[in-house]
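Thread amino acids onto this structure.
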């Protein structure tokens, strides 16, 4: 599987800062997940799955017990990129 570049949308950055709020262990776990996503977004440990309903067309993956990342895979300049859209607990983002 070829690696894809991560693209951080402002909505993701804002949610990320609010979500980790000084919790450095959580922040490190999320950063580890992001590195894995960049290497192989469909690695089994990420549990990536397509969404339906109001989030149809987007994908979610797990980055810990109650942490989800919402993203999409898009083509830009002939390369696939991972657009990071949102992060939060299951209840916050669904």
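Threaded sequence (94 positions):
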């Amino acid at each position: 599987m070829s690696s894809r570049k991560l693209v951080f949308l402002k909505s993701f950055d804002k949610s990320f800062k609010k979500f980790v709020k000084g919790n450095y262990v959580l922040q490190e776990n999320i950063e580890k997940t992001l590195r894995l996503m960049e290497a192989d977004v469909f690695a089994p440990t990420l549990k990536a799955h397509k969404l339906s309903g109001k989030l149809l067309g987007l994908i979610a993956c797990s980055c810990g017990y109650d942490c989800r990342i919402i993203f999409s895979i898009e083509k830009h300049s002939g390369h696939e990129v991972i657009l990071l859209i949102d992060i939060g607990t299951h209840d916050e983002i669904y």
